[in-house]
Amino acid sequence: MTQETDYRRGRHCVFAIHAHLVFVTKYRRGVFRQEHLDSLHRILADVCKDFDAELIEFNGERDHVHLLINYPPKVALSALVNSLKGVSSRLLRKEFGDFHPWLKRRGVLWSPSYFAASCGGAPIEILRQYIEQQQAVPA
C-alpha cells in the first residue's frame, strides 16, 4: 500500500495517482541514442512540471520510451500525453537538428498511439474486498 508520505495534497483533495506510459516512435524506427534519451528525460520532466505532475522514472530504447508519472486529478491524462509527445518531438528536432533523415522528411517522431496503465496503491482484489466489507447504512 502507499505510504503516507507518497500522498500529494491539493487544495481540496489528497491523492496518489500514478501512470505508466509507453511512447513508440513512428513505424518503430530505432532513432534514439543515449544523448537523445538524456534530452528527452529533461524535456519530459519540464513538461510534467507545467502540468503540476512529476516524472518519477524514465528510460528508453532505440524505438520507445517508458515513463512513470505522478499527476494531479485536475489533469486529463490524454491532455498530458498529447503535450508530452508534441513538445518532446518539437524540442528534440530543434535541439538535434537533423538527427535522423526520415524525421526531417516526415516531421513526426511519435506514433499516434500510446500505452497507459494506472499503477500504485493496493491491488484491485484487495480494494474490492475492502468495499464489500463496508457496513451498510441503516435505513
Question: Can you characterise this structure?
Answer:
With 139 residues, this protein is α+β, with helices and mostly antiparallel strands. Helix content is 37%, strand content 26%. It has four helices and six strands. The chain has a four-stranded antiparallel sheet, with helices on one face. A two-stranded antiparallel ribbon has the order 1-2. A hairpin with a 4-residue loop joins strand 1 (8-9) and strand 2. The radius of gyration is 19 Å and the shape is elongated. The mean pLDDT is 87.
Which key phrases capture this entry?
single chain, alpha+beta, four-stranded antiparallel beta sheet, 6 strands
Total count of helical runs of at least 4 residues: 4
Low-confidence runs = none
First and last CA, distance:
33 Å
Radius of gyration: 19 Å
Query: What pattern of helices and strands is seen along the backbone?
Result: EEEHEEHHEH
In what range is the share of β-strand residues? 25-35%
Shape: elongated
